[in-house]
Fold this sequence. Notes:
Elements: E1 7-9, H1 14-24, E2 28-31, H2 37-42, E3 50-53, E4 63-66, E5 69-73, H3 78-83, H4 85-90, H5 93-98, H6 104-109, H7 112-118, H8 124-132, E6 135-140, E7 143-148, H9 149-152, E8 153-155, E9 158-159, E10 166-173, E11 179-186, E12 196-204, E13 210-218, E14 225-228, H10 243-252, H11 263-285
Amino acid sequence: VKPPTFSYRRPSSVExxxxxxxxxxxxxxxxxxxxxxxxxLSMRLAAPGRLVDINSLTELSYVRCDEAGVRVGALARHAxxxxxxxxxxxxxxxxxxxxxxxxPTIRNRGTSxxxxxxxxxxxxxxAVLSLLGGTVIAASTDGxxxxxxxxxxAGPLExxxxxxxxxxxxxxxxxxxxxxxxxxxxxxxxGDYALCGVAAxxxxxxxxxxxxxxxxxxxxxxxxxxxxxxxxxxxxxxDADLAAAGELAGRLLDPEPDIHATxxxxxxxxxxxxxxxxxxxxxxxxxxxxxx
Length: 292
Ligand SMILES: Cc1cc2nc3c(=O)[nH]c(=O)nc-3n(C[C@H](O)[C@H](O)[C@H](O)COP(=O)(O)OP(=O)(O)OC[C@H]3O[C@@H](n4cnc5c(N)ncnc54)[C@H](O)[C@@H]3O)c2cc1C
C-alpha cells in the first residue's frame, strides 16, 4: 500500500521547523518516530501535503530527571526513556507503562512525546500523563505555552495542539513521599494495544493508611480517564483489599463495545485491575516490595 503524495522537509533547527509549520498550517504534519503516522499514510487514512521530519533536531533528544520530575524531549524514543535508571528512580510509573508499549523494534523508533500527542485512547502514556497531572510544552513562531494533560486530550487522536505547534517536551511530575504507583493492562498478546489498562496512584498518611487513591484508564473512553477513588478506601491499611475502589470504578466508567471486547468485559477488567494496581501502589508507597 502506498501513501498519497506529499512534500518532505527535514529542518535542522527548531526555529526552522516552526517556520515550516507556520507556513503550511493544517497541510503539514510532524514526522517523529513514524510508528503511527507512516501506517496511517500507507493505509491512506491521512493525507498531509507536507511532512516536517524532526529527526535532525537532536537538541530535542533528551531525558532529564530532577526532584520535580522527568522531562522528555520530542526526540526521546520510548526505549531510551524505558532504559534510563534515573527515570525509574524518579517516576517508576513511566517504565512500568512503557514496558507495555508495543514491541522493542517499535519502542526503538517511536517517541514518547509522539505517543502523547498522537492521543490514541488505547495508548499508555496519555493515561500516565493524565494521572500524574503532567504537562506538554508546545512551541510555535508565536512563542511557547504549557498545556496541562486535562486540557490536552480533546478526543480520539485529537489534542488541543494547534497545527502550527510543535510539542517540544513532556513533563511527568515525581511523586511526593509516602506515594506509590503501579501499572497493569490486559491485551490479547503482550505488546498489542490494551483492552483495558490502569495506572494507579496511592498516597498514604503517616500511619500508612490510605489518604488518596486515584486511577488513570486507557481503552475505556475516547480520551484518558482519571477517577478519584479515595472515598470507599480512605483510612484503610496499606495492605488492605481495595476491591471497593474497583467496584466504584466499575460504576463510574462507561466503555463502548467494539470488535475487540464487549463493554461488560472491559468493565470487569477495570474492576479487577483497579483493585490490584491500587493495592500494589499502596504497598509501594509503604516501601513493601511486591510478591504478587
Ligand atoms: C504494531 C504497533 C503496535 C503499537 N502498539 C502500541 C501500544 O501498545 N501502545 C502505544 O502507546 N503505542 C503503540 N504503538 C504506537 C507507538 O507507540 C508510536 O511510537 C507512537 O504512537 C507515536 O510516536 P511516533 O514518534 O512514532 O510518532 P509519529 O508516528 O511520527 O507521529 C504520530 C502523530 O503525532 C504527531 N507528532 C509526533 N510528534 C510530534 C511533535 N513533537 N509535535 C507535534 N506533533 C507530533 C504526528 O504529526 C502524527 O500525527 C504501536 C505502533 C505499532 C506500529
